[in-house]
Batch of 4 targets.
Target 1
Amino acid sequence: MADDGMLLNFSLPESGILNKPKFKGGTWKDRLTAKKAAANWHTKATQRLTGEVVAPKTSTKATEVNLTELGPRIQSTPQNLDYGGDRPAKKPRVSGDFQSKTADETEAPAFRPQSNSNVSKQSGEKQATSKGGKQIISSLFSYNPTSTTKPEAKSRDEDEAPLEPSNAPLTSELDTFTSLGISTTLATHLLKKMDLKAPTAIQKAAVSQLLKDDSDAYIQAETGSGKTLAYLLPIVQRLMELSANMKKRKVDDAVHRDSGLFAIILAPTRELSKQIAQVLGNLLRCAHWLVATTVIGGEKKKSEKARLRKGINILVATPGRLADHLEHTKALDVSNVRWLVLDEGDRLMELGFEEEIQKIVGNLNNRMKAKKDAASAIPGLPEKRTTVLCSATMKMDVERLGQISLKDAVHIRPDPTDIGQDAVEEKDGQEFFAPAQLKQSFAVVAPKLRLVSLISFLKRAFARKGSVMKAIVFISCADSVDFHFDILAGNLEGEEEKKAIEASEGPKTSDDEQSKKALKSKKPFSQSDPTKLTVTHTASLILSPKTHTVTTYRLHGSLPQALRTSTLAHFTKNKDPAVLLATDVASRGLDLPNVDLVVEFDPAFAREDHLHRIGRTARAGRDGRACIFLMPGCEEGYVDVLKSDRKDAEMGVSIGRQDADEILKKGLVTSGVMKDRLEYMEKATDLQLTIERWALASPARLEAARRAFQSHVRAYATHVAAERSYFNIKQLHLGHLAKAFALRERPSGMKVPGLRTGAGREDKRPAKIRGQGGEGKGASTRKKVELDLPEGADVEEAAKMRKAVRAREKFMRHAGLASEFNLG
Ligand SMILES: Nc1ncnc2c1ncn2[C@@H]1O[C@H](COP(=O)(O)OP(=O)(O)OP(=O)(O)O)[C@@H](O)[C@H]1O
């Protein structure tokens, strides 16, 4: 089969499986090692077949590898993890150490499907020779750690009816927009032009409060509950009233673009800012004399300045860019600003925008005071400015941010009776949950099986047209997004590509071939090397079933802004099935239609981020599914965090659980009938080997795979301290993980030139200087990222958390993520 010499030993040896094989070839050391491995396997198989119980050893002696730039020494074999249960310290075997062997001469059973799959999983790792470099080719199904969790008896079934939604519009006849104080004109516009019949619970609470008085407010509600309109509606309503008053008093015709800037909305990402501006634009169609615009960077400042000069009433901005304009754009007069909204306030804080926000607030205060002194305020304009903070998740940072910009803020939350729930018992005021109707599950997948399991999972999800229209897969870093995009994009080149598709689907009929040909013709990029950053979407050969095409997309902060925008727009408009591979740039606030599945392939760095990620589905009362991939061992402890997402946990609603075996069977054995019980292993192995060969075939791809692996490990080291017991880098089996990046080399020897530093960013200056806000001079004065310290956290814990945040910040810069959040 393979030119890499991998032998898949599917048939039972004639001498019987319990007879010891003979060892030939290689050096005496290799023969001895192989003999020992086979003897060990032989003993275990005998014990199992004779019913003898083998007590698993819980620890393995770790072999340490020093992965450059990772900081702490990381062990290639994790501590305290049961990798096969009875294995002595494993010395990685390297194919280059062997002399060339024929398939017949290869003895250690790498992948040995037998009647007892447990036995096959205990079989030894296998090495093979390759022309040239040293390679480790391990079997996918051997030495995998065993899971520590069991499916719960009362788990929510996939096909079960969803629970009552908690973020849907209200259904009572009494709950109308007009009953909240919204004018008939605006309410009619909402109904007729935006198809919004009734407010959601948070809109009901926020609109009535913000129309009633000018107190600062903190709006907190689940993801997808309509918070954007919850703050936009009262602002637009108040401005429409102001305009009507001016007309009545004959002060002026009405409010127009030169009347002044009345409201500023700040958001942490450009994508979110654009989305808010779009909702606002739709709203303002019924008040065309009000003008809104965005200043978010990513385009020439000159054109932003020109728009500001023309006059605007509402501004949507990212903090860095706004601070910059406040300093350098004279035309920007903020003396009339009476509403300041900080959307995703906790994120703004977390990414170190505190200084910019302080600068902005200070500037607004000064200009407002100066204007008052000049007694030239517009009649009817509120005396004081209202600051509104909006987020689905609340942390200490947000409260700190509140202290600098919010005074005696009213905490606005949905009335529990409106969302069919009892009042939530608050623990330190920090309770936030996933939407009730969201079906959550977790997949326990060993590191080696991650890549094939992801492909299988997505194949299964998109198998039936209409079952999943759109999915988002969250990946920790941009390099890894690119690597997985290249694979899903079907960029496996010619024969290999065909083999991978066949491996994952079985042989094709001529009709199938035709449909695949049609798919191929859609491919817009070169087949030879990793796709260029200019390609962000393409038909996915590997995911597309015979009946329809699945398009794969990628999105991360290292892409040029114009491309980020066009990619999202394309994904949004695409009416056919599509999957978006994205970093956390897509986790906050984005309202992408028809997303019915979120996959957290890499768990989020913190629970709050996880809630925002899964909140991209199950929005505004619609159904949705979310699945998180966890590795066997300590990561499975994260299920407790998943349980804490649910208000209904006490009602016995549990989180569904899937195993890699199940995922592979469902995704790869598409005929529905397995030829034998181990067919899925064969298919998974073929798929994995094809991808490995594809990666090996080009130095550029290999480098991309290495880069992805290293960035992934770096990212892994940046989980918040509070969750590091689940995501413990010392427990990470780097060798096994490397396989999920199609690598056949030791992590310790890996050299990755040119790790991503934010390529594709328009602003190439260092993050420090970019921190000045675009046209900055000198070094940044940005403060260190502040922490989400729980009350009573001790000094040691605080230090740990600080370190984690710093590491995360450093990683973000390294991985080009800083630009995702416009840290400059
Ligand atoms: N009253 C309503 N009736 C029906 N749909 C609504 C209503 N209000 C908002 N929506 C829709 O709900 C979806 C989510 O709204 P929005 O993006 O404002 O949620 P959010 O609470 O800000 O979410 P996140 O926390 O993820 O940012 C949007 O598609 C929006 O059009």
Target 2
Amino acid sequence: MRICFILNPTSGTNRTQDVPALLTRYATAAGADFEIQLTQRAGHATELAREAAVVGCRVVVAVGGDGTVNEVARGLLGTEAALGIVPRGSGNGLARHLRLPLDLPGAVRRVCQPTFQRMDAGRINGHWFFCTAGLGFDAHVSKLFAQAGTRGLSTYVKVALREYRRYRPTPVQMELENQVLVDTHCYVLAFANAAQYGNNAYIAPQANIQDGLLDVCLIDALPMLRAVRVGVGLALGTLATSSSAAYHTSRRIRVHAAQPLGFHVDGDYVTDATDFEVELTPLALEVAV
Ligand SMILES: Nc1ncnc2c1ncn2[C@@H]1O[C@H](COP(=O)(O)OP(=O)(O)OP(=O)(O)O)[C@@H](O)[C@H]1O
């Protein structure tokens, strides 16, 4: 079984480690037949992943954060190769959802002796996501976070607190697969394939990655008291049982916003739009767990 590690050298906050040397050490110790590729730019991991799948690698491993996982996974759709994850990001939403080891030696050992399962994949306006996508405040924060110059959880929290004072909800119409039309406001509208954003922030604690459905979480307004409740709910995994958010499940969702809203896929801001088509492809990807 050939394994290809695709390493994003810019991911993570600890850049002092010689990651290729460590990958080599742990994969050799696990008796793996492997190669290591380094990304040179954004988007490169998708090309490298597809090439690795074409030459017959059985597992193609994203070594990075959820952005790298997204790029590698996109490259593997429709191929015979499975996605592996060696988490190196700050959030690691998909790795945490799949209960993969978060430490480097443990994660490398796991991808060298994996079991395989299939998982669903979502698309929003044609952009694939594997963990979560969303509109509104979280996408707005992702956009500013990307421009912040520094990364990590503390930068994210700083940006979120600053923007919380300025951000206002947008009127939206949402149509679910079974024709239910919801006329509401969007502060946050999240489409969850996996249960969490990353960092164990559970936006949709009941989300199942194999059920053929997206969990849709709507927060229509976020006054201070509710913001505190949402924060606690995210951390404890109790948001779905609080009255702070409304939940639906659907395979297909359409949203029309009264003014342009930003959206993100797997935590990376994409662009602003007024119309959104969100769709789930059941069991689209094989994953090494
Ligand atoms: N060699 C590279 N140079 C610059 N950017 C890159 C390179 N390789 C990948 N990228 C981009 O870096 C982005 C961020 O990577 P990733 O999400 O893996 O790490 P992170 O931001 O540290 O993790 P997290 O999202 O968990 O905070 C990816 O979306 C990818 O497009």
Target 3
Amino acid sequence: MKWNQVSVLTSSEAIDAISNIMMEAGANGVAIEDALDLENFKSDPYGELLDIETIDHIREGAEVTAYFPETIFLPEILPTIKHKIAELTSFGLDIGKNELSLSEVVESDWATAWKKYYHPVMISRYLTIVPDWQEYTPHSEDEHIITLDPGMAFGTGTHPTTRLTLQALEVVLRGGETVLDVGTGSGVLSIASKYLGAKEVYAYDLDEVAVQAAQENMALNPVAQDVHVAANNLLVGIDTQADVIVANILADIIIELVPDAYRNLKDTGSFIISGIIEDKVDIVLEAVYAAGFEVDQTFKQKDWFAFILNKKIEE
Ligand SMILES: C[S@@+](CC[C@H](N)C(=O)[O-])C[C@H]1O[C@@H](n2cnc3c(N)ncnc32)[C@H](O)[C@@H]1O
């Protein structure tokens, strides 16, 4: 699997803010090199192990490197990232050189580096996502704990698109439904669906790494043991009558999915779509109206939109 690496040369004081911006934009993790730490390291007896050449460019300040799965379309999110970093100066933060560079990397040892930035996320009164390696005590009996180790798959729960989708699932699920989770990533939406009362859940992803991560996460959550996880391209070749179809994928891929979602959805069912950046709302809505859907509810967080759609049934 390939990853897109986005690095920003900045100042030490902007590290946390820039890391947050990257995680909110969908990074699976960030790695940080801070000249202040390196100074300490160089005076460390083991400092000789460090290849000083490689850190020459961060002799001053710091470098935040974020890793995005190749399924995230960077041209769509980079303008927002740049804008948000530039905005930090208005909060009085020194953003240093603010030089941004891109490259492609292959899966490597960064895989676990991001874990220290991943903490429990309270999605709502009913759903909290807790990293597998953290202790957490629920605040009430209503609070369901989704235990996750997303590994290299998308779906830590921290991304606005995942949050919006979870909120939409809370609205439509009443208990006893059949759910199709298209582009399951870490499996977070399937696990939440089971907690919210779904009877049968089918989770699909094109990416084998995600399929494996989702299977492992089902095993971490007893409620989701019977979720059927499989590799599949969207709903191609699937023939199920579902009460709920949920897809948190890029806008252009959602448009491809729409006809098969219509075919697999009961007349009374709900189709939840998320992952839609503001600029793409119009083309997605055009495609869903053309297929025979209407919008029931709209959800928005920052620049991201999600919709609950119903079939438009003529009286
Ligand atoms: C934005 S992530 C969403 C993950 C998770 N469902 C969530 O809400 O956090 C989108 C997922 O869709 C998967 N995906 C992309 N194209 C796909 C396709 N054609 N068929 C199935 N899955 C696909 C990606 O591998 C990725 O895991």
Target 4
Amino acid sequence: MTTDPLTGRPASSPCMAAEFEPADASDVPRWRKVERLRLRAERDALRVSARQTIGAALCRHLAALLSSRLSAGAVFSAYWPIKGEPDLRPLMQDLHREGIRIALPVVETRFAPLVFRQWTPDTAMVRGDWNIPVPPAENARLLPDVALAPLVGWDEAGYRLGYGGGYFDRTLAALHPSPLVIGVGLQSARLATIHPQPHDIPLDLIVTEAGVQVDHG
Ligand SMILES: Nc1nc2c(c(=O)[nH]1)N(C=O)[C@@H](CNc1ccc(C(=O)N[C@@H](CCC(=O)O)C(=O)O)cc1)CN2
Ligand SMILES: Nc1ncnc2c1ncn2[C@@H]1O[C@H](COP(=O)(O)OP(=O)(O)OP(=O)(O)O)[C@@H](O)[C@H]1O
């Protein structure tokens, strides 16, 4: 039997497709819940070495993409990896060294837009909402010129599936001028469609370990 080099599982593992497709908008939240669980389980099953390879490839693709879009003093919002998300902290370090200001998203108020707090390699992170490590409240609040949006799932129209809090959609709806938003996730997290709803805002670009997949930027 052949083995998938990334997951170490049988290449012919049983079909993991969602058990249903939503018939109408009222089914979409339930469908998304099933898909989030499936995609997160697949991501959790990755070997550490596969995760590292993916993170390094993403850092490379993003560095190439950002070199023409960010200059010293610009604000770049990244994320602190949780729940098996690709680790882009080496990229944050490199861009910081180049004089780019790095910010991280923070849930300061539940169900409100995210705020962005400055991060430097010297920042002592504290635990925020949902136990996510965040820069402390005394760090400067910044508005990103370019923002990464971590993806649980994505589609070729540029829509994203996150953890289901609606935080990025709420944030993008509130930010003016809106930053260039780059979705970051696994190639294997591609869906035929996320069944976009009126509140869903498409991303400008989507990048996976295989390179740029969507470019509306
Ligand atoms: N690394 C990282 N940081 C990030 C995000 C992210 O996706 N990744 N976010 C991107 O938006 C924001 C936090 N997003 C959140 C999204 C949902 C819930 C939430 O509602 N949690 C529920 C449990 C939901 C579940 O387990 O399915 C809860 O706490 O009860 C909290 C934070 C900001 N920081
Ligand atoms: N602009 C908005 N204003 C108010 N509520 C919103 C907005 N955008 C999304 N929501 C609400 O947030 C909830 C979750 O939305 P969705 O399924 O798109 O989450 P998600 O994009 O996967 O999560 P996240 O952005 O936190 O990673 C929905 O109930 C939706 O109504």
